[in-house]
UniProtKB/TrEMBL annotation:
Originating species: Halobacillus campisalis
Coarse class of the protein's main subcellular location: membrane
Keyword Nucleotidyltransferase found: no
Protein name (record): Flagellar biosynthetic protein FlhB
Membrane topology: Multi-pass membrane protein
Gene assigned in the entry: flhB
Pfam families registered for this protein in UniProt: Bac_export_2
Family of the protein in this entry: Belongs to the type III secretion exporter family.
Region described as Disordered: spans on this chain: 17-36
Known role: Required for formation of the rod structure in the basal body of the flagellar apparatus. Together with FliI and FliH, may constitute the export apparatus of flagellin.
Length: 361
């Protein structure tokens, strides 16, 4: 039974039940793993491109008509040579570039804008890196028959059905006018069918954009599900951020040792060591060139206090017993900082006593 409990605990720890941390989200983003709906791009692109056709359609028609007229009124009379063919090709290319430039510009802006709205600014080459796992036929088969693949299939069928229904409805509403186009001029017929095409494009783009809202919500849900973390993942991440507790304790111990060594090097220059006498030891130094008040250069309790007293004795630094003052200085004073004002009088009396004994005054 105990083995079964351990197994259950192990699987529970590995189960992806926790929300992703900011670090996990940042790492996923660097890898290009972000919630994104291609339908948003498609719908916005269609809407903007057909909107551009609606705005610039008349100008495009005039430019195409002029190019058509020039072809059959001027180019057709040119002598067929390499130079004339190159000239015609160059002129037609330039004219077509001028005609298509606004629409191409709108398409580029729409593509960039739709991505910025969804994922913001992101540059990463991770998705383009070669990965042998992507060529695994077993994983490929799993992706084909996965729940996500079924959802994508349903989405595609839904989009085709809606676009087809919109197209059919627009054609059905305008069927009578279409029948009458045989009685109209070619120019009138082209204008009519051009307008119908733009209307179908705008309606389809708007419908796809509305559908893409639902798809984006699903993509966000699926992304959040994929980047979920287990309790073990959270612990491992915390370890990586904060550091291994064992290593941290060793670092702290090393820092304590270095701090103690530095303190001990300051004790020989102290003027006096105020003791408890057994538990506390405070080394004080007064230098009017450095500070207006005495400075605590070393302090310690128990083992460290004994070491301070040993160093002081070895270097003939005077030690004075004052139990309440030693305890108060240890609790209230910081290393390499002047003592608090409330201790000035007591410490000054001790220093005066020491100076008298050492005949410094």
């Amino acid at each position: 039974m105990s083995y079964m409990k351990l197994d259950l605990q192990f699987f529970a720890a590995d189960e992806k039940t926790e929300k992703a941390t900011p670090k996990k989200r940042g790492d996923s983003r660097k890898k290009g793993q972000v919630p994104k709906s291609q339908d948003v791009n498609t719908g916005f692109l269609l809407l903007m491109v057909f909107g551009g056709l609606y705005l610039f359609g008349g100008q495009m028609q005039v430019s195409l008509t002029e190019m058509y007229s020039k072809t059959f009124q001027e180019y057709i009379h040119w002598e067929l040579t390499t130079e004339s063919t190159a000239a015609v090709f160059l002129e037609i290319t330039v004219e077509m570039a001028k005609i298509l430039a606004p629409i191409m510009g709108i398409a580029i802006v729409a593509g960039i804008a739709s991505n910025l709205v969804q994922i913001g600014i992101l540059f990463t080459g991770e998705p383009m890196k070669f990965d042998l796992k992507k060529m695994d036929p077993i994983k490929g088969a799993k992706r084909i028959f996965s729940a996500r693949a079924i959802v994508e299939l349903i989405k595609s069928l839904l989009k085709i059905s809606i676009v087809g229904l919109i197209t059919f409805a627009i054609i059905w509403v305008n069927k009578d006018q279409m029948m009458l186009m045989s009685q109209k001029s070619v120019e009138d017929a082209l204008v009519f069918f051009g307008n119908i095409t733009i209307i179908m494009g705008l309606a389809s783009g708007l419908a796809l954009l509305l559908l893409s809202t639902l798809d984006y919500v699903y993509q966000r849900y699926d992304h959040e599900k994929n980047i979920r973390m287990s309790k073990k993942d959270l612990k491992d991440e915390h370890k990586n951020i904060e550091g291994d507790p064992l290593i941290k304790s060793k670092i702290k111990e090393k820092q304590r040792q270095m701090s103690a060594a530095r303190m001990m090097s300051e004790v020989p220059d102290a003027d006096v060591v105020i003791t408890n006498p057994t538990h506390f030891a405070i080394a004080v130094k007064y230098d009017e060139k450095v500070s207006d008040a005495p400075i605590v250069v070393a302090k310690g309790v128990d083992f460290v206090a004994q070491k301070i007293k040993e160093v002081a004795k070895a270097n003939e630094v005077m030690m004075v017993e004052n139990r309440p003052l030693a305890r108060a200085l240890y609790q209230s004073s910081e290393l390499d900082r002047p003592i608090d004002e409330q201790f000035f009088k007591a410490v000054a009396e001790i220093l005066a006593y020491v100076y008298r004994l050492e005949k410094k005054v």
